[in-house]
Amino acid sequence: MTDLPIALDAMGGDHMPEAAVAGALEAAAKGCAVVLVGDETRLRAALAKHGGELPVVHAGDVIGMQEHATDVRRRPDASVVVATRLVKEGQAAACVSMGHSGATMAAALLLLGRLKGVERPAILANIPNAKGGHTALIDAGANADCRPVFLAQFALMGDAYARAIYGLAEPSVGLVSIGEEPEKGNELTREAHDLLAATPGIHFRGNVEGRDLLAGTTDVVVTDGFTGNVMLKLAEGEARVLFAMMRDALRSDLRSRLGGLLAKPALKRLAARLDPAEVGAEPLLGVAGHAFIGHGSSDARAVASAMRSARRLVDAELAERIAETIRASAVGAA
Amino acid sequence: MTDLPIALDAMGGDHMPEAAVAGALEAAAKGCAVVLVGDETRLRAALAKHGGELPVVHAGDVIGMQEHATDVRRRPDASVVVATRLVKEGQAAACVSMGHSGATMAAALLLLGRLKGVERPAILANIPNAKGGHTALIDAGANADCRPVFLAQFALMGDAYARAIYGLAEPSVGLVSIGEEPEKGNELTREAHDLLAATPGIHFRGNVEGRDLLAGTTDVVVTDGFTGNVMLKLAEGEARVLFAMMRDALRSDLRSRLGGLLAKPALKRLAARLDPAEVGAEPLLGVAGHAFIGHGSSDARAVASAMRSARRLVDAELAERIAETIRASAVGAA
């Protein structure tokens, strides 16, 4: 446990700094210490508007959504860089950004560095599943091209996450492929399958398919960051499209409209459970510290959720758990 | 146009031959000529049970779901092989199988062969989209490992399909990646992006992401068969899971239950539109003939839809249209 605050990049994202300030105040009211990072004048003004008080660390620059991730190297005053530096310097327990995801990753890699033995840090995404919990999808987008050993380490990091955060004793792990049989798949998955089967300390259940992500067939699902990012965005996009179609269906005639009105509270609860804002931000695992990446479109609710998610991982000392898991396995060690 | 019947592998699939016979009779009643391929005794018995009449071609063997696709080489009496041979010999306009998809592809490649100039035949899947139509996803699973030129040809085949079947004058094409910018993606997509941008005769809109599949951002979406198969199964699986969650939500209390009863017809119409049984079977494009692959779980309705889908492509002379499109472009020509 730590009393250090969570550093929030309050400038990166579509609705910033307003959503950052409102969300951070909501989180702070629930006992989560937050430090806002960004343009001090604007942040003080937004705080005053909300009648709230929070510590602010000034950052005079912001990396825009259309700019380059590599800009973190030459823009030390960018909000995401300043927020990450607070973690590096022991002044914050974690950094969270709803801005440029590539820049958030680059800042974490550059300033925090990799945990010893980790080949490639990866993004883990929590996908709501049919079993009422979440499936941990890793890598959700950090590494577009992967080698089999990366996937074996993703499995180890996902295992550590599912034990610490989902509270599972023996999380099951599946490898994304296009058929259950070990020989089904592409060059990467066929090699990765053998390596995963030989990786000690995980509970590998073999190949899983696209449908297993939401079914929750396994607790952890590993794949390369290209496939994982496509899956994440497809899963989120489909939920949005199906709910929009459902809303249209419930407006199609008088009878459906009445039915929709009656069913509204139940359907709203379901929509909330499937909303990415419920988790708020996803962790970059394998870096020496805690870094979180949220949607550019995050609103105040998503920011508050992100603070809560980040706090849980910090309290679980997840980075330390991952370091131990990677150390205990020999996978990837040169 | 042709009066030749569609050859239906009436043995391959979970609910065969009953679903095949019932679905084929339904299609035949609507004017679609069908020839059943499979165990003659069982098929005649099933026909008698339904009080219907259809031509039958005997096939004494079936390739089971757990067997090998390569079995098609040494099992000439397997129903899928016999059905494909009818196309090869000019006795059927198309073959359709709900059985082992690998075997269906292998039989088509072995017996029908590739269209001239086509590097790799590919499966095209029709994904219901938010615009009320379908997005053509290609390759949905035939080629797990791809080279950029394959993807350029998938775009050409998808373009020919969307013109012939969706009736579009200038179908737009997107490349699945993990960011809109050309340099975002993996090794394959970065090269494929440049090649697609230089491919004459298609309307390339650049990279699309997972969310664009159901949004219907472009009419055609090209990707390698690994990513495409994962996307297809994720999209279908998610629709199933979300509808099950919705059903549960509409049973959660008395008020929701009443609302659900009132909204039931509208929600059923929506579920039917999203049900893969609505299309029934998807085409393998690039072979010299018409071959279709359906779900192993297909019921009679899916079989009837598959016959209707196959008939549309045959009537549109799709294989000929694809051959022309590939010939007109120089892409992939050695």
Structure report:
2 copies of one chain form a homodimer. By secondary structure, chain A is an alpha/beta fold. Chain A folds into 2 domains: 6-118 and 278-322, Isopropylmalate Dehydrogenase (3-Layer(aba) Sandwich); 126-232, no CATH class. Chain A is 45% helix and 15% strand. The first copy, chain A, contains 11 helices and 11 strands. The first copy, chain A, has helices spanning 18-29, 40-50, 79-88, 101-112, 148-164, 187-197, 212-215, 225-249, 254-274, 300-315, 318-328, and strands spanning 6-9, 34-38, 56-58, 94-97, 122-128, 134-138, 172-176, 203-208, 220-222, 281-285, 291-294. In chain A, strands 3-2-1-4-11-10-5-6-9-7-8 form an 11-stranded mixed β-sheet, sandwiched between helices. The longest helix of chain A is centred in the C-terminal third of the chain and has 25 residues, at 225-249. Chain A is globular, with a radius of gyration of 20 Å.
Secondary structure elements and pairings:
Two copies of one chain form a homodimer.
Chain A lengths: L5 E4 L8 H12 L4 E5 L1 H11 L5 E3 L20 H10 L5 E4 L3 H12 L9 E7 L5 E5 L9 H17 L7 E5 L10 H11 L5 E6 L3 H4 L4 E3 L2 H25 L4 H21 L6 E5 L5 E4 L5 H16 L2 H11 L6
Parallel strand pairs in A: 1-2, 1-4, 2-3, 4-11, 6-9, 7-8, 7-9
Antiparallel strand pairs in A: 5-6, 5-10, 10-11
Helix pairs in contact in A: 1-2, 1-10, 3-4, 5-6, 5-11, 8-9
- What is the CATH first-level class name of the largest domain in chain A? Alpha Beta
Main β-sheet description of chain A: 11 strands, mixed
Helical content of chain A stands at: 40-55%
Number of helices of chain A: 11
In order across it, which strands form the biggest sheet of chain A? 3-2-1-4-11-10-5-6-9-7-8
Q: Looking at CATH, which topology of the largest domain in chain A would you report?
A: Isopropylmalate Dehydrogenase
Q: Secondary-structure element sequence of chain A?
A: EHEHEHEHEEHEHEHEHHEEHH
Low-confidence stretches of chain A: none
Structural class of the secondary elements of chain A? alpha/beta
What is the CATH architecture term of the largest domain in chain A? 3-Layer(aba) Sandwich
Oligomer designation: homodimer
Largest interface, and how many residues on either side? Answer: A-B, 60 and 60 residues
Strand content of chain A: 15-25%
Shape of chain A: globular
CATH superfamily of the largest domain in chain A: Isopropylmalate Dehydrogenase
Strand count of chain A: 11
- The radius of gyration of chain A is 20 Å
Tally of separate domains of chain A: 2
Note the gap between the termini of chain A. 32 Å
Mean pLDDT of chain A: 95
